[in-house]
């Protein structure tokens, strides 16, 4: 491959365009702005509740009233969207709290849409927080082993998505990694009168160790086994492209790659290959590692956070899902990136 320019030193000196912030900004190929950010939030039943998540400083499990406050602050800072995760009081083996009409997410969505109608409310669609065993699908135990059943799980996921739509969510985001779930959800939404409801699919979601702190946040750690029989093997990139292709064929309107920093190559390939609206999820440990190192004085929190998000944009992400969304918005208010 030949290079896309013919410049040669000394006629071409790349440093000519780097002397001042103004000039650097003019020629910046990639930009970050607050309109690209999505803030994940955790809601649980209660009142005036802000339960700190130890491994994620600045992130809380919130009761609905506190959720409105937190989301309102984000919106006031210019963050256009939140992604909701629910923590129910009760769990069972059919995740009934996930699709209950008065489930915690359904209630929270109704409240958010009433109090903050301009906020985009996205909902994570999965069963793990509502399952007593913590897996993302229905489990069948066979002697000592347990299998996560794919097809019977689809019905519950579809029901969950429809219940979120019915509560007024603006977008549903299935994260379970069952095969065929985007199609099942699309058909159920259409049949339920929600043909305009967009689906953001966690299309390439890897079985990543970077999700560690999230499991404390969402109280969704599996009680046995792990998620490697349904989430993707981090060794595989071509398979990620097949997952994305499948989800697009099944009706995904936006696709997501998760985690973000460890998957910049996947984000890039997905964007180049499909050109679809693409989200990157900067997951819990990406956030926690920066927070921890910053607390020790080892890194500059603002600089490292912004550079990480910029790298996701440069790789091809249009949408950045990050626990640091409010911090980032504040930094922009204080004087840009
Ligand atoms: Zn799950």
Mean pLDDT, to the nearest integer, reads: 95
Largest sheet: 10 strands, mixed
Overall 3D shape: globular
The DSSP helix count reads 12
Identify the bound ligands. Answer: zinc ion
Give the uncertain stretches in residue-range form. Answer: none
- Strand proportion: 15-25%
Structural class per helix/strand content?
alpha/beta
Secondary structure: helix percent: 25-40%
Query: SSE order in H/E notation?
Result: HEEEHEHHEEEHEHEHHEHEHHEH
Backbone CA Rg: 21 Å
Q: Between the first and last Cα atoms, what is the distance in angstroms?
A: 34 Å
Total number of strands: 12
Helices and strands in order, then pairings?
Blueprint (H helix, E strand, L loop, with lengths): L20 H6 L10 E7 L6 E3 L7 E3 L1 H13 L4 E6 L9 H4 L4 H12 L4 E6 L12 E5 L2 E5 L1 H17 L3 E4 L6 H11 L8 E6 L6 H7 L19 H13 L3 E5 L5 H11 L3 E5 L1 H12 L5 H15 L3 E4 L2 H9 L4
Bound molecules: zinc ion (ZN).
The site of zinc ion (ZN) has 5 residues, from loops.
